Amino acid sequence: MVNLLKTSRKSLVTSILAAGLLTSVIVVVLPMATAQLPMKDHRMANITGSVNVREAITNFINQNQKVSFSQASETAQNQITNGTVLGGHMGIAQGYLVYTFFVADNGIKTGYRVTVDPGNGQVLHTSEGFPLKSLGLMHGGGVGGNWKDHIRGGTWHTQDGVWKMTNQTVK
What we know:
7 strands; 3 helices; 24% strand; 2 domains; alpha+beta; Nuclear Transport Factor 2, Chain: A; two-stranded antiparallel ribbon
């Protein structure tokens, strides 16, 4: 029974995401394709359909998110000795809604990816540590130092993915 519920929830999330992706493709690609055709103004009229994907996704997240971003951030930080959360976001990993955080231990100049479940606050995964130097953060004295103003926002690329940083100021 539990597996059936998990499968059903997974199917619901997948269906919602597929509908959102299809909507995005239609909204972005179709206007680009038709813009090249010599036609008069044939824009689609404003419509109100019966299935609002944006509302469905928002409702789904609101119903299933039991742990706040700040609570999950604290959990991620506590997962790493001397950890400092430098950024994080909510997203989807392997079909599940998750928080993903970048946590650094500046003492040993190592970073970690920590994944936390927004439904129950459990740590789902902690990556092996990787050198902060691989992210270009060790210029000028480590995390903080001269980098304090450069860690607000933007994107960091690592060997195993992309980190989107929050607007949190590093202390």
